[in-house]
Amino acid sequence: MRGQILEVARERFRREGYEAVTMRSIAADAGVDAALISYYFGSKSGLFAAVLELAISPADTLSGLLHGDLETLPRRLLLTVLAAYDSTETGVPMMAAVRAAIIDPELADLLRGGLLRQLVDRLADRLGGADAQQRAGAFVAQVAGLLLTRYLVPVEPMASMRPDEIVRTLGPALRTTLLGAAPRPAGPGRAGFPGRP
């Protein structure tokens, strides 16, 4: 039954794109109750991750992280992403999906319209504000750049840095992308330029 659901979902996602497909429509095509899809896959994004043969759902993982403080999100997200991609159990299938998307235009469209759109939209909803989509998109692009230079086309020093070094190096830039420049500490200096001599 699980395999039948995946087969139907794979075809529907490829034909119609992620957004247009519903759990109910997949259930109807597969001849099962929609609750069975939730039982096997948890959510639409979980089903999508299963279609892509990912060990975890990036969108569901991000949703869990969004419940915490936005100030600490870059650090928490980087540590979670690095742990997932450094693991052969979860990282290898995820990078295989990315490599496949490079040569398969339909899969690339699915990743853009499904996985990446989910990530940007969920993050933008949490951020709020007129430029939330832009900030969320830039944030996701920065994390994608890390994945590219650490795992897909390993570039030093990123490829061999420890996770804590990556957090220390990239965390502040990611925080600025999400929330703007951090407030400068108060201190002596010229008017309008706190902390400058």
Account of the 3D structure:
- By secondary structure, the chain is mostly helical.
- The chain folds into two domains: 1-51, Homeodomain-like (Arc Repressor Mutant, subunit A); 55-179, Tetracycline Repressor, domain 2 (Orthogonal Bundle), CATH 1.10.357.
- Helix content is 70%, strand content 0%.
- α6 (73-86) packs across α10 and α7 (88-103) crosses α8.
| Reported CATH architecture of the largest domain | Orthogonal Bundle
CATH hierarchy class name of the largest domain: Mainly Alpha
Quantity of strands, as a count: 0
- Find the structural class using helix and strand composition: mainly alpha
Distance between the termini: 70 Å
Write the layout of secondary structure elements.
Elements: H1 2-16, H2 23-30, H3 34-41, H4 44-51, H5 58-65, H6 73-86, H7 88-103, H8 105-127, H9 132-152, H10 163-179
Helix pairs in contact: 1-2, 1-4, 2-3, 3-4, 5-8, 6-10, 7-8, 8-9, 9-10
List keywords for this structure.
197 residues; mainly alpha; Arc Repressor Mutant, subunit A; Tetracycline Repressor, domain 2; 2 domains; 10 helices; 70% helix; disordered C terminus; Tet_transcr_reg_TetR-rel_C_sf; DNA-binding; Homeodomain-like_sf; TetR_C_16; TetR family transcriptional regulator
Q: How would you briefly describe this protein structure?
A:
The protein has helices spanning 2-16, 23-30, 34-41, 44-51, 58-65, 73-86, 88-103, 105-127, 132-152, 163-179. The chain has 197 residues and is mainly α. It has 2 domains: 1-51, Arc Repressor Mutant, subunit A, CATH 1.10.10; 55-179, Tetracycline Repressor, domain 2, CATH 1.10.357.10.
